[in-house]
């Protein structure tokens, strides 16, 4: 029985036994899961592992099981965005990242649960039921990539892919005590990622160690001519795996410790920053004056883009279709029935924000505030190498606690959304516990400077033991 | 004489040109030659709008757009961008059309036409790029439809929308504008105008300075004239009866020749335009000078040159320069025979025979027409025989020399004609008397006899002249 | 703030059917969020250009080269509503 092993460990186990055996043991674990992290497990996973054994495939991820968030297109494998409206939809093509994973020999075990269409911070809005936090099954795993984080934390896969539009990789990483990276905008191809807010989102890896994050980045990141926003830039991420933060200049924005922050989280994060000082780094206060407006700007932009990105779901070509005696009625009923409440609210708000008479007040205004937020980052990061703060203001909250008050859920994203507005990279690493629940430290870097934040995260990992802790419920 | 425009008619036209000569669609690599193929066989995730698909701009489409803009005397904008036009219709797979909004690639141009009172300049407001939606087919009639069939082969084809200023004052001027536009586009070789859907027209028309009405569903240039004639009359009558014209969209019913109001809920459009997040802006004005240099000699310039160089009539110049293929054909012929003869034979005779048979200039060779012209000018055959050869080639094939031999078209020797003339005079004394007495018709009768005797091979004009002389002599 | 009528209008624009009793509830929930959005009015954005794209890239193109299209059965595979190679839907109006 394989549990909580990193990619190097997995590859060793495969060498000792076989890819087939390793995959089989993970599949068995998933069968006995209590976190409801998967929407679909792939019935061809074992076959794929067998083929890797017999062909002697030797890519960097040969035989390594990976889980994929259910908003990333997988050829021949159901992709639902955890929504009723895509029930039964099987994409006829692979996303760019899936092509890369397959070429590296990875074994895709299945598609993970998420907030419907990536709209959420708790994975409670999934049509397939909530995913549970392995550390405390009464609590949320975070969102929207809650499934991707929970299955890694539960030892059901060594690594997974999620997507991050306003914190959707970093938040569940923090709540589940794993590592999660949102790369610079344009770093990983979005071809095949089902869009929620296309100017804000990136696919991001989740794993139990920083080194594994770097390994995954080396496989899936890079230029793709099918994505016009993909940046043509070569980089070796594994080069960053060095234990060295001597002279690293850390900026701590006071705005990231705003009111509403949990005491335990605050203390744990400051302890982490003090640890960096021990390791040879230095820190200073920086100011990000537009942080408090970033949340509103983010939601306006995200909802506006979403209202357009989700317009294609009308039942005509794929997915769920309701009855209607003409096409417009059919489409309206399909969308009313097929979308969950949060998705509908965001589509309505986004439509409103773009509509005649309100376009300037909301959409255009939000884009201008975005410029100011981006300028905050440009300025702060010109004075320091990285920024640090808590990923989330609180530890994982209880299931059902916030789902009836959408605004309170939105407010939980306060530290993560500014990063998406600016397009900079950010990683969340486990840095301790508050209330017996994991706390994440967010490290933000300059555009395309993933290597510095990876190095900073790795160094922290090597000099602490938070990342070695496991949820008690999982063997 | 200045055209008064007593009804204050103002017509503006929006013409959509489909770039069906590009190899691929605007945002994906699907091939464009779908016209004779099965439905949904020229479709990919991008033009089907599958979730996760992303557009990438066809560079040749952009160059074609610049070419068209320059040919219409437009300026090419410094920075241009695609926008989303959001609305719901089953032929729109993404629920929005990717088009251009406030920064069209070309603007502020003009086209000169033969107006009601001489040359008239029609302003071109803008020319921009957008994608074609799919094609709908109603099951049953449009009034009692049982459903809709949708074929996405056309979805994603490149359209260039050309918007004119409301500078046309009559349906005739509108028709002339369309003809001129078609001619210019033909010269640029950017599309095959004979293919279905290659050029579509929407008209905007107002009278007496009132509100403008949009007329859609015009599928031919003749249709455009008819639609405008009807709509102008309808508006005039409405105003005369004390009614007010409301700004609305009307549908042209080609079969009945009327426009029908489409004022239904579907028409309440708020397109919520915003820049396409999946596509980056284009800065391509620097390509304009080179593209401008490479522009072919356009119809107006070519017509001017033909008038001067070949000393032909205005009518011939117009007829020979409407289509580039005809112009090139003519010039080839004119380089081998007398240009004036060439213009008569190509513009009047050959084109007449081709039009009658609904054929293009491709149906005849330069070699053949040159040979025919030479046979006539060398007096070997009559003009009438030349026409017969053309008809024979078009209807049955063959080469001029063969046909001359087969049909015995070589002009009859002068002495044979003289003999027939003498015989005809002696055999028809009464007719000769009648003619001498002033009856012109009797001469025709005798000419007929001469033609009979020479089995039609005599030149009728010559025979007539000879008869007149001989009859005079005998007097 | 958004009225019940505006909710219905926006529901139509977004093709999401909203019945009578739902529109009140929507108006309430949407208004609390719109209220929050209103704080952006405090920000001085005069002379601040909007950020449409976070990366400063222009002119991304592809060649006019034909790529394989999907077979017809694959195109229609995700729906049962089809006829003679076409997608089938209810009449338009």
TrEMBL record, chain C:
What family does the Swiss-Prot or TrEMBL record give for this protein?
Belongs to the GatC family.
This molecule's function is given as: Allows the formation of correctly charged Asn-tRNA(Asn) or Gln-tRNA(Gln) through the transamidation of misacylated Asp-tRNA(Asn) or Glu-tRNA(Gln) in organisms which lack either or both of asparaginyl-tRNA or glutaminyl-tRNA synthetases. The reaction takes place in the presence of glutamine and ATP through an activated phospho-Asp-tRNA(Asn) or phospho-Glu-tRNA(Gln).
Q: Which InterPro entries match?
A: Asp/Glu-ADT_sf_sub_c, GatC
- Database matches in Pfam families: GatC
Note the superkingdom of the native organism: Archaea
Q: What is this protein called?
A: Aspartyl/glutamyl-tRNA(Asn/Gln) amidotransferase subunit C
- Provide the alphabetized UniProt keywords: ATP-binding, Ligase, Nucleotide-binding, Protein biosynthesis, Transferase
Q: What is the lineage of its organism?
A: Archaea, Methanobacteriati, Methanobacteriota, Stenosarchaea group, Methanomicrobia
Which NCBIfam families does the entry mention? gatC (TIGR00135)
Species for this entry: Methanolobus zinderi
Give the catalytic activity: L-aspartyl-tRNA(Asn) + L-glutamine + ATP + H2O = L-asparaginyl-tRNA(Asn) + L-glutamate + ADP + phosphate + 2 H(+); L-glutamyl-tRNA(Gln) + L-glutamine + ATP + H2O = L-glutaminyl-tRNA(Gln) + L-glutamate + ADP + phosphate + H(+)
Q: Name the SUPFAM superfamilies for this protein.
A: Glu-tRNAGln amidotransferase C subunit
Q: Which GO terms describe its biological process?
A: glutaminyl-tRNAGln biosynthesis via transamidation; regulation of translational fidelity; translation
Molecular function terms, GO-annotated: ATP binding; glutaminyl-tRNA synthase (glutamine-hydrolyzing) activity; transferase activity
The answer on whether this UniProt entry bears the keyword Protein transport reads no
- What Enzyme Commission number(s) apply to this enzyme? 6.3.5.-
Q: How does it assemble?
A: Heterotrimer of A, B and C subunits.
């Amino acid at each position: 029985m394989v549990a909580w092993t990193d990619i190097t460990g997995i590859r060793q186990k495969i060498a000792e036994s076989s890819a087939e055996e390793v995959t089989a043991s993970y599949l068995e674990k998933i069968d006995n899961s209590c976190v409801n992290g998967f929407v679909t497990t792939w019935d061809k996973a074992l076959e794929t592992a067998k083929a890797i054994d017999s062909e002697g495939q030797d890519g960097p991820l040969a035989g390594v099981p990976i889980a994929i968030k259910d908003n990333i297109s997988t050829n021949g494998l159901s992709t639902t965005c955890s929504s009723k409206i895509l029930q039964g939809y099987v994409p006829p093509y692979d996303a760019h990242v899936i092509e890369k994973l397959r070429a590296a020999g990875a074994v895709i075990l299945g598609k993970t649960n998420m907030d419907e269409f990536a709209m959420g911070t708790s994975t409670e809005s999934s049509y397939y039921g909530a995913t549970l936090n392995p550390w405390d099954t009464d609590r949320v795993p975070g969102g929207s990539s809650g499934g991707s984080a929970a299955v890694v934390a539960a030892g059901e896969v060594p690594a997974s892919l999620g997507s991050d539009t306003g914190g959707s990789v970093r938040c569940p990483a923090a709540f589940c005590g794993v590592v999660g990276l949102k790369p610079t905008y344009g770093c990983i191809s979005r071809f095949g990622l089902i869009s929620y807010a296309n100017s804000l989102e990136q696919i991001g890896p989740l794993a139990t160690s920083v080194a594994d994050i770097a390994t995954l980045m080396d496989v899936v990141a890079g230029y793709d001519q099918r994505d016009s926003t993909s940046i043509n830039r070569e980089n070796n991420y594994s080069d960053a795996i060095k234990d060295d933060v001597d002279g690293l200049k850390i900026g701590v924005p006071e705005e990231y410790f705003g009111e509403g922050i949990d005491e335990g989280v605050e203390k744990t994060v400051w302890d982490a920053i003090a640890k960096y000082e021990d390791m040879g780094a230095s820190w200073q206060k920086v100011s990000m004056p537009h942080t408090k407006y970033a949340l509103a700007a983010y939601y306006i932009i995200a909802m506006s883009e979403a209202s357009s990105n989700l317009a294609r779901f009308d039942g005509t070509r794929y997915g769920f279709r309701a009855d209607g005696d003409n096409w417009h009625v059919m489409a309206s009923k399909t969308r009313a029935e097929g979308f969950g409440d949060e998705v509908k609210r965001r589509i309505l708000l986004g439509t409103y924000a773009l509509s005649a008479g309100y376009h300037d007040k909301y959409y255009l205004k939000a884009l201008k505030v975005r410029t100011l937020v981006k300028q905050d980052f440009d300025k702060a990061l010109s004075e320091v190498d990285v920024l640090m703060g808590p990923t989330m203001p609180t530890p994982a909250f209880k299931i059902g606690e916030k789902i009836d008050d959408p605004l309170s859920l939105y407010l939980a994203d306060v530290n993560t959304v500014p990063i998406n507005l600016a397009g900079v990279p950010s990683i969340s690493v486990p840095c301790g516990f508050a209330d017996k629940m994991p706390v994440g430290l967010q490290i933000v870097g300059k555009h395309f400077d993933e290597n510095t934040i990876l190095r900073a995260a790795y160094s922290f990992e090597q000099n602490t033991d938070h990342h070695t802790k496991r949820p008690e419920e999982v063997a | 004489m200045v055209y008064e425009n007593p009804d204050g008619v103002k017509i503006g036209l929006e013409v959509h040109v489909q770039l069906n000569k590009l190899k691929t669609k605007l945002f994906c690599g699907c091939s464009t030659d779908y016209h004779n193929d099965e439905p949904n066989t020229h479709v990919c995730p991008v033009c089907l709008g599958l979730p996760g698909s992303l557009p990438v701009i066809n560079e040749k489409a952009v160059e074609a757009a610049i070419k068209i803009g320059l040919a219409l005397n437009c300026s090419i904008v410094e920075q241009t961008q695609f926008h989303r036009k959001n609305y719901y219709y089953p032929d729109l797979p993404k629920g929005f059309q990717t088009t251009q909004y406030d920064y069209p690639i070309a603007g502020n141009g003009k086209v000169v036409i033969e107006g009601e009172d001489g040359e008239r300049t029609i302003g071109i407001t803008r020319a921009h790029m957008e994608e074609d939606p799919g094609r709908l087919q109603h099951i049953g009639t449009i009034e009692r439809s049982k459903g809709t069939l949708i074929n996405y082969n056309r979805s994603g084809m490149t359209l260039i929308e050309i918007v004119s200023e409301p500078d046309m004052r009559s349906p005739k001027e509108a028709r002339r504008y369309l003809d001129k536009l078609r001619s210019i586009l033909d010269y640029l070789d950017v599309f095959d105008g004979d293919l279905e859907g290659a050029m579509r027209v929407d008209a905007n028309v107002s009278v007496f300075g009132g509100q403008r009405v949009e007329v859609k569903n015009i599928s031919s240039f003749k249709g455009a004239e008819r639609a405008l004639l009807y709509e102008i009359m309808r508006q005039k009558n409405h105003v005369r009866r004390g009614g007010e014209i409301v700004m609305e969209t009307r549908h042209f019913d080609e079969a009945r020749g009327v426009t029908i109001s489409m004022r239904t809920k579907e028409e309440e459009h708020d397109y919520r335009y915003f820049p396409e997040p999946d596509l980056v802006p284009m800065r391509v004005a620097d390509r304009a000078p080179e593209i401008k240099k490479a522009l072919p000699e356009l119809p107006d310039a070519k017509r001017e040159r033909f008038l001067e160089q070949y000393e032909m009539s205005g009518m011939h110049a117009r007829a020979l320069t409407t289509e580039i293929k005809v112009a090139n054909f003519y010039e080839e012929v004119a380089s081998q025979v007398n240009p004036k003869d060439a213009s008569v034979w190509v513009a009047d005779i050959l084109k007449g025979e081709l039009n009658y048979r609904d054929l293009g200039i491709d149906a005849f060779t330069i070699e053949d027409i040159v040979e025919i012209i030479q046979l006539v000018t060398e007096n070997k055959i009559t003009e009438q025989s030349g026409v017969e050869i053309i008809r024979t080639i078009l209807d049955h094939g063959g080469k001029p020399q063969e046909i001359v031999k087969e049909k015995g078209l070589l002009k009859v020797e002068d002495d044979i004609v003289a003999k027939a003339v003498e015989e005809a005079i002696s055999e028809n004394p009464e007719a000769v008397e009648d003619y001498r007495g002033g009856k012109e018709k009797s001469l025709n009768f005798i000419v007929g006899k001469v033609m009979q005797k020479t089995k039609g091979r005599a030149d009728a004009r010559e025979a007539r002249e000879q008869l007149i002389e001989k009859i005079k002599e005998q007097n | 703030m958004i009225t019940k009528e505006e909710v219905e209008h926006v529901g139509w624009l977004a093709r999401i059917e909203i019945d009578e009793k739902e529109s009140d509830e929507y108006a309430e929930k949407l208004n609390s969020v719109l209220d929050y959005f209103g704080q952006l009015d405090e920000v001085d954005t005069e002379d601040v250009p909007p950020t449409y794209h976070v990366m400063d890239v222009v002119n991304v193109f592809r060649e006019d080269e034909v790529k394989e299209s999907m077979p017809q059965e694959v195109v229609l595979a995700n729906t049962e509503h089809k006829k003679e190679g076409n997608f089938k839907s209810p009449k338009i109006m």
